[in-house]
Amino acid sequence: MSFFRSKQMKLYSLVIPRESAWIVMDQLGRLGQLHMIDYDPSLPMMNRPFANYVKRCDESLFKLNGLDALLKQFKKKLIYCEDTQKLLDYFRDIQNSRQKPGHTLFDELEQEIEKKKYNIQEMSNNLQNLLDRVDSITEQKLVLEKAKEILGKSMFSQSTPHNVNDYQQLKFGQLIGVIDKEDETRFKRIMFRITKGNAWVNIVDLLPEKQHLQIKTSIDLNRASQPRCLYVVVYPGMNDQSTLKQKLLKVCDSFTKNRIEYPNSQETMDNKLKELSIQINEAQHLIQMTKKQLEVTLDELVKEKNGCNCSYFEQLRLYVLKEKYLYVNLNYLTMQGSIFTGNFWLPEGLETLVEDKLRNAMQNSIERFPTGQIQEIKPKQGELAPTYFNLNEVTMPFQEIVNTYGVPRYQEVNPGLFTVITFPFLFGVMFADIAHGFLLLLCGLYVIFWKQQLKKQTDSMFNAMIPFRYLLTLMGLFAFYNGLIYNDYLSISLNLFGSCYYPKNEEWEREQNCVYPFGIDPVWLASGSSLNFMNSYKMKLSVILGVTHMLFGILMKGVNTLYFRNYLDFFCEFIPQLLFMACTFGWMDFLIIMKWLTVYPNGKDPSIIETMINQVLKPMDEAVTPIFLNNASLQLSITQLLTIIAVVSIPWMLFPKPLILGSGHKQHKVQINDPQYQKLISEKQGSELEIDPQQFRKELQNAASNRSLESSEQEHDSGEIWVHQMIETIEFVLGGISNTASYLRLWALSLAHGQLAEVFYDMCIAGKLDMGGIVGGLMSGYFYIVFALLTFGVLMMMDVMECFLHALRLHWVEFQSKFYKADGYLFIGFSYNKMLSENNHN
């Protein structure tokens, strides 16, 4: 089972001639089953052989991102690639039909991207300049028209006085222009201070929709416009050299350079307005032509080409991503002369497939260079293989839950297999309600069956649920199932199978030999002691589920130790841990079930808590009210035996393993310090000294540092082993108590969910059912809406998240801590198809 344990991996070395490196890596990328190993992770990418190619790909992607922004600006919809494998086949056919080396296709596409980027950017800049010009001309025309309305024709008919000395006293000058709306108050204040109140200032808003109304109806570039105002300043005197005018000019220019000269006559004004109208019409004509040409060019990028069912722009982008991905993986290899060498992990059984790919790599190429070769090698001591599982749409979300805590170690038992059932089940125990679980189930089924339609609705909240639709469905299914077990429908008990009780003398009498078919008898939930009964039932059920869950985790630890042949951990950790858990909390679960199955006379039910306490504090005394009816001696014998086993298990966990490991380290130390091994090392180093002195010095330093490290480790290993084992023992013993108590959250969350549902029902529905008339109907409708909103917001949203997080905690801490190492790393296959699918915008 590839989901129970990760796939078997083999380590291979890869040797590729430099001339065929691109072709070989391209074929391996199409296979998608190799996990490439970086020969030197500390080496920066810029110092690697193909860093320049990666940089060129990044530059091309940057240019394509600029084009993508323009496409969105002009509201062009791209057709994203749904079948990346079909696109890869098209790339392969193009490379085979070109009669040129495969890597040269990127050179051609790079030039094409550069050319398209330059042309489109130039047209876009021209269009932007034309729009700015039309804005400026339209604003200028509007300013002149507004100023003419404000000043009137009297400004053109000021007569020249007979006395030249009175000229400045009779004439008035004017300044007009445009400022930002936010500067209006500051402009008035400064004008008043400069002229000391001897100038008339009028400011009128220029509405944005009037500035370029005709332009906005024909093109939409999402151009933000700032509110603007027209200012008109009339001051005494028309002499251009006057001090007052110079001050006013400086103030106006300090606010904005957009100051407009007011014509001296009516004829000049009319000619100016006519000239501006002509310029606007010419600019609009140029805008339409430029816009049409630009849209034609952009439409070429958006259209489907070559039968790939995606836009040509997407073909260019995905090909550049593919090339970058290839060169990044080529950089993981080391160059030695004219060949590239490197290592990779490969799932077992795919060696023949890789060899066929290498053998056929050069068949369709015009070049006849040697192809690559692979050879299986043995991993170094302590080198772990990557973890690889065959996941599908059902198992993926559950494996992600596990991987968020930590990736499984290579070949260890994968908790994801059990999480497929246990996670939604424990969620259902906490969220148990027939109605709420059914709503959650319907939501999951809706996303499953309408997946294709929801994919196209990127703004829908259901779109984000698509990867987790099966998890959502199982959560709803188990919540519905546990709601049937609890017989809880919006805090109402359902009479589905009748009842085993009948009323007698204002009390409920139980029928003889009657067993309720499924779930909880509705009479219990209708009685006055329903809360006490359900609390006791849910609390005990939570303990049984928790201990069973943890015992299963301990069993998985035993499976791991046997698989890895770690018999020391099997006998010194797994067996005592299993015995301790079974003899304490497993025994408590057995007592709970035994009490459920036994009918005690006169209502004298024994206390399980008292029994567990007396098992330790009064180990020699028989129970007054034993769980085993009329058989207290048997119960005492069993409890004494289980107590002895549990107590013995603690030192069994603590002492044997450190003692055995400590003796093994001493023997290992004697073997390393044996003179004959030192002699062999010195002879080997002496022979290497004659070959390469620098290499010998380097290896000598490494050997010296390693020996010093080994000696220090041998001195401290024994103490570290004892400390580690002591921590493990204390953590397990105390954790057994705390983890068992932690599973009581199953009871607490279920209680909180039921009580909230009951409060909402009583406050919004139950009290309004007996109201009659029109007012009663309206009030019932209103409170039903309130009830629905509270149910959706609190129970279907907040409580779902709360139960999800608590189920997550139970798996990560209580269950997985019993066996799960979580120190592995994921298998990342060198796969074009997977990379393109992840980078596809669809």
Notable characteristics:
single chain, 842 residues, alpha+beta, five-stranded antiparallel beta sheet, 11 strands, coiled coil, V-type proton ATPase subunit a, hydrogen ion transport, ATPase binding
List the helices and strands and how they pair.
Layout: E1 9-17, H1 21-31, E2 35-37, H2 51-73, H3 84-97, H4 104-151, H5 167-170, E3 172-180, H6 184-195, E4 200-206, H7 208-211, H8 213-218, E5 228-236, H9 243-255, E6 259-260, H10 266-302, H11 312-330, E7 334-336, E8 339-347, H12 351-359, E9 373-377, H13 396-405, H14 415-430, H15 434-449, H16 451-456, H17 469-486, E10 501-504, E11 507-510, H18 522-526, H19 530-563, H20 567-597, H21 608-617, H22 632-654, H23 656-672, H24 675-689, H25 693-742, H26 745-764, H27 773-815, H28 832-839
Antiparallel strand pairs: 1-8, 1-9, 2-8, 3-5, 3-6, 4-5, 7-8, 10-11
Helix pairs in contact: 1-11, 1-12, 2-4, 2-11, 4-10, 6-9, 11-28, 13-14, 14-17, 14-26, 14-27, 15-17, 19-20, 19-26, 20-22, 20-25, 23-25, 24-25, 26-27
GO cellular component, one term: proton-transporting V-type ATPase, V0 domain
Membrane topology: Multi-pass membrane protein
Protein name: V-type proton ATPase subunit a
